[in-house]
Specification:
homodimer, disordered C terminus, 8 strands, 322 residues, 12% strand, alpha/beta, 8-stranded mixed β-sheet
Chain lengths: 322, 322
């Protein structure tokens, strides 16, 4: 049996626990598992237990990780450094540590710096989420068919890769290997920039003196474009702090487009406005037409043998604690 | 029986026809109706007929409006001027002309300038829509519970107001009287600005050389924030052209917020970033907590007598054509 420790029982940590625990151990690539959960907020651990996301709530970080084969860090990004430092002397030799944070380069640096030899780190980032935080919004199907980025260091062992990949596929997600720096640049554009634009929309409109009169006219368009602004401020603060260079670049790109639009609007340039809007519509429709969650190079046809893998880990266990 | 002519059979025109024709004439405030439809594109008229949005497709503008009690203009904004000019000599005396365009001040000016005495114009704008254009996406429930802005001129007659209000309530929408210039400033913030931000996101990301690698990582956040960018380019071009001043102001406000965010990100100012994101989350959550489509001053409790009104128009008919 594989023991998995989940540190941080918010939306993702709790959803992950639920997904792991509802997988059929006979067919799941990771086999039989036990899930231990820990959160600095004891109430969060209680909520996760209530939602059957964990078998057991640990009373301390040490209790959570000391028998773990896999440790999943599901705290906000900035907290990961402290947690890595705290668990470094506690994690059993041979265990694998992974995380689910939205930025990967900084986390990889911290892990390389803090974890002892014999404890491998494989960064991870499921491309799934919700704007509501906390265990109450957790969903065991959150990761189904989602792309799950894995950003292993070059020297990662096959065993560690296999184990994390089994964890990912057992919750119905699709592992996608990518360099951590590349990952951060890309998600800055398709995930963090949308959040910032959602935030900018809400800030610009709600601080207006006319907001009270405007608000009733806000309909489904406003609701959807403002959705991400309801996300967790701490999680997004940490994203801003750990992915600043890429984000700054995307903010500049967006301002450039807005200035171009403003210029065309001021000039009343019907032709250029329509050309830009038509081009953007084509691009967005083309993206939407691709099958969601298709990894680069992946075709629409996925054979059975590619989905089902025998459990590699029925007999897997970590080395005894040294 | 009231004859309603719908000019322009895209998403809104067709949805409106479907909504009007599915209302129960015994309880509907507008009573028994007949709907005539016209579109410059004959295929669009055929599609609308196929979806039972109209009783009859007219072969010309003249045929569409010559017996109409109400004429609804559902073309893109810029086309409204030409249509008003064309129908001015054709509309029966006593008929009421309305529209469903997203901007109201310019349309009101055109109507005052072009329509003859004895034909009243009451501008309208249902706060409902979809990014997919055309009859195929039409939905008779599109207007249910939606706020429907009405921007009558000060000299509008009670008869004309009653008639348009009956049309609005018969499709399940909620009439909301507002000054056309105020309307344009407000919807620029809550409707047109979200569209432009959605467009800016798609333009900035899809033109990137890394788009092919980024696209698979785009998940539900990107999908939702980019949704409006799939809207009709011609409709939005016309919105940009007829609501430029307000839009320019909102673009400037948004750029100001983005620059502030960029500065905080570059400074790694965790405190100020978190404060801004938390404030924005509060504002957005507060907006979401209000009942959708509640007009200013409207309470959550709406008594039966406020919803159901006797039909004022069972015996209503326009003056004979002069």
């Amino acid at each position: 049996m594989i023991t998995i420790a989940i540190i941080g029982l918010g939306l993702i940590g709790t959803s992950l626990g639920m997904a792991l625990r509802t997988a059929d151990e006979k067919t799941s690539p990771i086999g039989a598992i036990g899930v231990v959960g820990y959160d600095v907020d004891r109430r969060a651990a209680g909520d996760a237990r209530g939602r059957l996301a964990i078998d057991r709530a640990a009373g301390s970080l040490e209790e959570a990780v000391r028998e773990a084969h896999v440790v999943v860090l599901a705290t906000p990004v900035q907290a990961i450094r402290d947690v890595l430092q705290a668990i470094a002397p506690l994690v059993p030799q041979g265990a694998v540590v992974t995380d689910v944070a939205s930025t990967k380069a900084m986390v990889a640096t911290w892990a390389a710096e803090l974890l002892p030899a014999g404890v491998e780190f494989i960064g991870g980032h499921p491309m799934a989420g919700k704007e509501q935080a906390g265990a109450a919004s957790a969903d065991p199907n959150l990761f189904k068919e989602a792309i799950y980025c894995l950003t292993p260091p070059v020297h990662a062992s096959q065993n560690a890769l296999d184990l994390v990949e089994a964890l990912v596929t057992s919750i119905g997600a699709k592992p996608y290997y990518i360099d951590p720096v590349e990952h951060d640049a890309y998600v800055a554009g398709v995930s963090h920039l949308p959040f910032l634009l959602s935030t900018a929309l809400v800030e610009a409109t709600t601080r207006s003196r006319s907001w009270k009169e405007m608000a009733p006219l806000a309909a489904s368009g406003y609701r959807d474009i403002s959705r991400l602004a309801s996300g967790d401020p701490v999680m997004h603060r940490d994203i801003c702090l750990t992915n600043g260079v890429a984000l700054t670049r995307w903010i500049n790109e967006t301002i450039e487009v807005l200035l171009r639009l403003r210029e065309q609007i001021e000039a009343g340039d019907a032709k250029r406005i329509e050309a830009l809007l038509a081009e953007v519509k084509r691009s967005r429709d083309a993206w939407l037409d691709t099958r969601p969650n298709l990894r680069p190079g992946e075709t629409d046809f996925v054979g059975e043998q590619e989905i089902r893998r025998p459990s590699l880990f029925g007999r897997w266990g970590p080395n005894k604690k040294g």
